[in-house]
Design goal:
Layout (H helix, E strand, L loop, with lengths): L1 H12 L5 E4 L6 H7 L7 E8 L5 E7 L2 E3 L1 H8 L5 E2 L2 H7 L19 E4 L7 E5 L5 E6 H8 L2 E3 L2 E3 L8
Parallel strand pairs: 2-7, 3-6, 6-9
Antiparallel strand pairs: 1-8, 2-3, 2-5, 4-10, 7-8
Amino acid sequence: MALYERLRKLLDEKRVPYELMSHREAFTAQEVAQASHVAGRLLAKAIVVRESESRFYMAVVSAPQHVDLTNMHRMTGRPKGRLATEDELRRLFPDCEIGAMPPIGKLYGMPLYVDEEFRSHDDIYFQAGNHHEVVRMRFDDFEKIAGPFTGEFAVHRETSKIGG
């Protein structure tokens, strides 16, 4: 798959150690976590927000959480946005399966916001552009290559119906 090559090239160029883990096909972040035997709080779920006709950004929360768009707006000062549609995702991530894009916005020219929760864990897991592989790497290494802005903008699934 082309995306894995793009991602692999970035990781190899930066000399970042990582592990590629195969799992049965899964589509939701919680299913991916379960299929790959990873705690949901460690699996990064990339959500794309459209803030204008041609401007998008990526927000990353753990599998059991949602993005609170109001908190994102307050935290970033970005215009209030909405979740990207499937058609927009197809256009933005032509080398990914829908909903399986890796949480590295710079691969696609997008700002990246990662929930602060991930800083409390040594490792981060995320989809490799498809619905049957995840990447595991040290969070410190992820932060170096992805260059995210971090903040608290996630809410638990039980308390909100916002976002992915």
